[in-house]
User: Which sequence fits this backbone?
């Protein structure tokens, strides 16, 4: 299959062409404000199955359904939980996914046997234009090969998906850079399943109590029943093994400098770019600029695969605000190999 790049800047029919492919049951790379998604008609199980094949995604990992208007949630969910309206008023359109009870229209291919479904109303204008033009909600996981870092540019998507999907709608670089926050409203107390563009502090300001799933802090074995099935798989990982060094940035930089060997890659804050002259260095952004770190973290992790580094040392922000999401992606890339200094 030839994967075409549809660029709204060069082709005024780009969105319509992508929508036509979606209506035919094809898979299209879709820009969102968080990361690129691999979109298909969420109501068509055969189209959704193609997403799993293109990604090499495990069959028990359900997909998020993207809508363009809040009222579409009532078509997909029989009993919308009371907190959903308040969350939508605060954070939609935007980087938040709500897990809610699923209705009959959601095919098994989307929900993978669960009785819930994740719903998100993205902020990216091209994503919403595409959902509206397709006339159906769109199921879309992140547009990376399963296990690799997520994609934040059309070039990243092409690298993983060339020949595997019909087209990529090019919306430039994603503004947030890490995936949406996933919060479950299916239990008694709201539960954070994945930190993302909306922070835990922001969620608590709207919901009061929010529990935090233990998958945020540890690797979950493949045999364990988890609330977000995606959390148990190896994730975001470059080919070379990653070790995270946590603590005061001066100390972590000094620790890394004392431990570098041959063919070492270092992911560090901008302030330390000159500390590792013999290494392949990738800069994560200034140490206090969490938004910049979120925007580039996947690009930097992916870039190591274009080099011949044999191991990677990484600095990482503290678990506060957007730092919780950035640190989670780096820790998962490291398989939770973490040294505290
Ligand atoms: O920002 C995002 O959320 C991006 C863009 C494309 O919208 N999408 C994305 O999808 O990150 P994905 O499939 O890569 O991650 C979705 C996560 C997975 O960890 C999955 O297990 C979890 O959400 N999830 C999906 N449906 C669920 C459900 N019904 N119950 C619990 N977890 C669910
Ligand atoms: Mg993903």
Assistant:
């Amino acid at each position: 299959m030839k994967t075409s790049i549809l660029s709204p800047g060069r082709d005024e029919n780009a969105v319509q062409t992508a929508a036509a492919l979606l209506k035919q049951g094809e898979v299209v790379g879709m820009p969102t404000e968080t990361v690129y998604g691999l979109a298909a008609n969420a109501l068509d199980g055969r189209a959704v199955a193609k997403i799993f094949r293109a990604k090499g995604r495990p069959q028990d990992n359900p997909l998020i359904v993207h809508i363009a208007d809040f009222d579409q949630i009532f078509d997909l969910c029989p009993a919308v939980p009371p907190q959903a309206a308040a969350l939508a008023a605060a954070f939609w359109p935007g980087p938040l996914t709500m897990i809610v009870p699923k209705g009959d229209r959601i095919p098994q291919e989307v929900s993978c046997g669960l009785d819930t479904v994740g719903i998100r109303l993205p902020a990216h204008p091209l994503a919403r234009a595409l959902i509206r033009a397709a006339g159906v909600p769109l199921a879309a996981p992140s547009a990376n090969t399963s296990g690799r870092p997520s994609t934040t540019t059309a070039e990243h998507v092409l690298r993983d998906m060339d020949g595997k999907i019909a087209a990529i709608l090019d919306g430039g670089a994603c503004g947030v850079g890490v995936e949406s926050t996933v919060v479950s409203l299916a239990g008694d107390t709201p539960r954070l399943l994945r930190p993302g563009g909306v922070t835990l502090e922001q969620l608590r300001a709207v919901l009061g109590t929010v529990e935090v799933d233990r998958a945020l802090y540890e690797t979950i074995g493949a045999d364990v029943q988890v609330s977000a099935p995606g959390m148990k798989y190896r994730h975001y990982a470059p080919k070379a093994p990653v070790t995270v060094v946590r603590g005061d940035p001066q100390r972590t930089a000094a620790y890394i400098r004392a431990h570098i060997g041959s063919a070492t890659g270092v992911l560090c804050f901008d302030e330390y770019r000159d500390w590792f002259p013999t290494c392949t260095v990738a800069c994560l952004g200034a140490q206090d600029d969490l938004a910049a770190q979120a925007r580039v973290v996947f690009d930097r992790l992916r870039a190591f695969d274009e080099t011949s580094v044999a191991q990677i040392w990484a600095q990482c922000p503290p678990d506060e605000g957007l730092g919780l999401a950035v640190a989670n992606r780096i820790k998962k890339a490291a398989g939770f190999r973490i040294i505290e200094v």
Summary: The chain has a mean pLDDT of 95. Residues 141-142, 150 surround magnesium ion (ligand 2) (CB under 6 Å).
